[in-house]
Amino acid sequence: MFGASNVLFLLLMIIGPIITLSSSNWVVSWAGMELGFVGLIPLLFLGVGSVNKEVGMKYFCIQALASALLFVSGMMIFSLFQKGVFWVLGMIFSLCLKLGLFPGHFWVPSVVSGLDWFSCVLILGPLKIGPFAFLSNIMAWMPSFHPVVLFLGGMSTVIGGVLGNNQTSVRAMLGSSSIAHSGWITLGSVVGGLWLYFLFYYLVLVLSLIFLSELDYSSVCIAFLSMSGLPPFLMFVAKLKIVTMMMGFSWWMLFILLPLAGSVLSLIFYLKLSYSFYLNTKSWPSISGGLGFMVVNCVGIFWGVFFM
User: Fold this and answer.
1) What's the CA gap between 67 and 29, in Å, rounded?
2) 64-96 pLDDT, tens per residue?
3) Structural domain containing residue 20
4) Cα–Cα distance for residue pair 225/290, rounded to 1 Å
5) How many domains, the chain?
6) What is the pTM of this model?
7) 35-65 pLDDT, tens per residue?
8) 63-78 as b/e, with b when 16 or more CB fall inside 10 Å?
């Protein structure tokens, strides 16, 4: 799948988020996001078949629109010092469009459902690091917009749960799941715990996609249970961290209802997925790849006990 020329694109995709994370200048941060985006696009077109190329073009158009809107809003706010509500909301909306958050979530299930597993790993993980870092910096600079972002994050968890229950393909469900988990990460960008949640989510996601590609249904069943946030699995620790951080926020009771409702909705389709893979499992071996995944979940439990 990978030739020597494609290593360059993969390197660009890795360097882009690093530039965004390490820069304090908004233009350099924006350029880092676009560098990662430019590195990703050729990798998307490696898939075989017209569907993969079609969703690649759809993803390109949406991200290009979001990048242009983000740049214009940034110029008005940081260069021309026009810190009006319109431009700040425009910047937040452009990041929502990039990340697949409410109200810019509409493209995620259709794009993810047309990609192969490797492309899903790229789109749902590394390319979100830069926008989330940018959003976290904005929240540090403009605390007056915390309620807006908390509402958008909570609505994303609900929308992700509703869309997941209306999907019939595993990839589309994973796309809806990404909307819900991105909502939780957005909450973390305001109250804290953003990178811990992102690390746990991406670890579980990558392991889930590896098990799916290898048709290891017993491990897939456990992986989806972990992604649902059921105790004592790994994602439960991450969600509990966000909830405890939100309790120290003013009006926390008002903002915590949406993500909790979204978690219940997401739990429904995660249980459906886990049960369907459980029925497709002919036998549960005593030692398998799922053992390592259980060890990872146990590590998360101990992390929560000793470091929260």
Assistant:
1) 12
2) 999 999 999 999 888 777 777 888 999 999 999
3) 4-307
4) 12
5) 1
6) 0.89
7) 999 888 888 776 545 456 788 888 999 999 9
8) beebbebbbebbebbb
